[in-house]
Amino acid sequence: MVNPKEVDAVLARFGLPVGDCLAERITTGHINFTYRVEVPSRRRSFILQRINRQVFHKPEIVSANIRLAADYLHKLDPDYLFPEPVQGVDGRDLQYDESGEPWRLFPFLSGTYTVNVATSPAQAYAAAAAFGRFNRLLSNLPIACVGETIPRFHDLAWRWQQFTDACERGVPARLAEASPEISQAKRFSTLVDQYRACLQSGALVKRVFHNDTKINNLLWWGDRHEPACVIDLDTLMPGYFIYDLGDLVRTLVSPVSEEERDVTRIAVRDEYYEAVVNGYTSAMEPVLTGQERQLVPFAGKMMTFIMALRFLSDFLLGDVYYQTHYPGQNLVRARNQLTLLEQLCGQLPD
Question: What domain range is 322 assigned to?
Fold first, then answer.
C-alpha cells in the first residue's frame, strides 16, 4: 500500500496545493497505483500514477517515450488530443518519492468516459480507427529515439520459448491438470514459424505502436460518444502493426472477454471482425505496405496465441505474473484464448 503522506509529498513536487488536494484511489488497473486528484481551488482534476517497476524496470524510458510522442504530435498536428504529462516544479515529468518510486501526473479530461466492451460494430470500428490514426500519426517518428519499455513484449518466438520452458519447469500437478491445453497449444506451433518467416522476409515494417490496444485504453466524449484520445501509453514503443491490429481483433470480435469460463459463449462475430479490420486499415491506409496488408488475417491469430501462451505459462509456473482471484484462473484464461484461436483459424484465411 501507498502511504498517504507519500502521495502528499509527490503532489507537492508537482506544484499542487497539498492542503487543497483530494486524492481517491482508482482500483480498476492491475499494474500501476492510480489516483484521481481533485483540486477545488483550481477547479481542476488530475490522474496521479506510481509506475510499477516490477513490470517497467526502466520507468525513465516509459516517461521519455511519452514526452517524445507528445512533442512530436504537437508539432505534427497541434489539434490532435494527446494526454501530455504535467511537469514537476523541477521541469521533469517523473517525480520520485522517498522510497525511490517514480510518479507521474496527467490532466483529467472532463466530459469523457471509458468503455470496457464494444456494444456495436460501429463502436468497434470507431475504436479501431482511433488507434489506427494514432499509429499513422506516429509512423514517421524515428524508432531509434524510442526505447523498449518491456523488451520482447509481443515477440511470439520468445513467448513460445517461455511456454516450452514452463512445460519443463512447471509445477507437476499443474502440468497434469493443463495437459489438454498444453497439447492444444502445441498444435498451433506453425504460427510461430509464420511469425519468424514474416520477420525474416522483411514483410513487416517496424514503427512506433501503442502495443496495448484494448478498447478501455481510449477515452470517449460523453456528449457525442466518439473517441476522444488514446490513453495508457506505458507500452508505447517500436513494434509491428500486427501487434495493435491483432490485439483489437482479440479483444473485440468475441461477445465475451478473456475471463469468460463458459467457452461455448466464445465466438468470432463476423460483423465485428470486419468493423475492426476496416476501421484500423482505413486509418492506416497511407502507410501500410502491400506485404503488410496480406498479413491482416494473421494479426488476430498471432496476438490471441501470444496471450494463450502467456496465461498458460503463468499457470504452469504457479501464477507468478498475472493477478488471479480464484484457483485456476490463468488456466481458464488460457482455455478461453485457445478456444478463440481455434475459431479465428477456422474462419480466417492463412
Answer: 121-347
